[in-house]
Amino acid sequence: MLLKLAWRNVWRNKLRTSIMIGAMVFGVVGVILMMGFMNGIIDNLVKNAIQWQTSHIQIHQKNYAINPDINSVIDDEAKITALLEHAPEVKAWTSRTLVNGMIASARSTRGIQLNGIDLVSEPTITPIRSHIIDGEWLDDHGRNPILVSQKTAERLKLRVFSKVVITFTDTTGEVTGAAFRVKGIFKTSSSAFDDANVYVRKMDLQSLGLVYFDHEIAMVLHNEDQVTEFRDKLSLTVSDKNRVQDWLQLQPLLSTMMSSMAAGNQIILVIFVIAMGFGIINILLMSVFERTREFGVLMAVGMKKENIRRLIIIESGFIGFIGAGAGVIFSILFIYVLSKTGIPLDAMAEGLNAFGVDSVLYPSVSITDYLAVFTMVWCVSVLAGVYPAHQIIKKKPVEAMAEKQ
């Protein structure tokens, strides 16, 4: 009986109830879209970091991160590569020779990291081959081909077939260098990455620098959930002179940003539900005090005050259920559409690229987030009915019936 009566009371003033529910729906949709936008940024940062910079796991010589010297090559590399070839967890892997040097054209000179890559395995780890906007991917033909970024090409006034001079210090401590011919120009989502990297054939770089082992082994796994477990497994297997790190260890700033974004989502949600709670209290107070004489009659004919309290709380629960439910349903539809079309942010492209974020974001919200929003909104709605219920049951039946409307 209480459920039926509460439902009728909710819609006694249809306009007021509809306005309150509409405000709840608008707020829920806004909060979830904001959460989806923030999650989209983090997902994009993580995806780009793994694709372009860290992979899932990397192996270096122990002191390479402190001093990326050309002589800091991986110890016992053959044993590691043999292990990776037969590891069922590994989807793909590649090895790289990395050298810090200078790139010069007729117009300018700048510092750069030379990535000596394997032409077959590198495209299985990074999507560099599909991001060439002019020219071609490196091949075995020709002498000293090089891939430069669009940003580097603009700074040095380069185009396909332009000649550049690469210089760096070899393993003996002598300055070495050679002329390279631009084979292709690439562009990624990170302007900082583009500004700092060029790609050459590994055999060219090793021959020029007199280095015959690699500085980095990068791998991606079939299942991202296995990263920590496989990292620990590798750490026990490889030489003590090497260091195995996963992508979170390689990008600690990204890990901090993920934690900050998660905390930010929670703060936004809490602020919204608190504001919404006060709104529901206001609506219910008006509704309850309009029916003071009615509640007085109910108490006079024998209805227990506890049942009146339940009635009011059920009313607030109905409002919360409808508002939160409708808000979540609309949010699911919006997020689904935006996850397919994306949110174009062309006006902010330059700023986003500086942080390694694409100019088109795809918001994402997990089922857990939807449930968390619905549960919090509904619980606060129910709690919001406690105060109005307490105010009405404090009155005596005679006082309530004598109340003027």
| Most strands sheet | 6 strands, mixed, barrel
Total tally of structural domains:
2
Shape: elongated
Count of helical stretches: 16
SSE topology:
Blueprint (H helix, E strand, L loop, with lengths): L1 H9 L3 H41 L2 E5 L15 H9 L4 E15 L4 E9 L4 H4 L6 E4 L9 E5 H7 L6 E7 L5 E12 L4 H6 E5 H8 L6 E6 L5 H11 L4 E5 H4 L1 H39 L1 H9 L4 H37 L1 E2 L4 H6 L5 E2 L5 H18 L1 H8 L3 H5 L4
Characteristic terms for this protein:
single chain; 405 residues; alpha+beta; 6-stranded mixed barrel; two-stranded antiparallel sheet; cell membrane
Describe this structure in words.
It is found in: Cell membrane. This is ABC transporter permease. It is a multi-pass membrane protein. The chain is α+β, with helices and mostly antiparallel strands and 405 residues long. It has two domains: 2-49 and 254-401, no CATH class; 63-240, no CATH class. The chain has helices at 2-10, 14-54, 77-85, 122-125, 150-156, 191-196, 202-209, 227-237, 247-250, 252-290, 292-300, 305-341, 349-354, 367-384, 386-393, 397-401, and strands at 57-61, 90-104, 109-117, 132-135, 145-149, 163-169, 175-186, 197-201, 216-221, 242-246, 343-344, 360-361. The strands form two sheets. A six-stranded mixed beta barrel has the order 2-3-8-5-7-6. Strands 11-12 form a two-stranded antiparallel sheet. It is elongated and about 100 Å long.
Question: What is this structure, in a nutshell?
Answer:
The chain is an alpha+beta fold and 405 residues long.
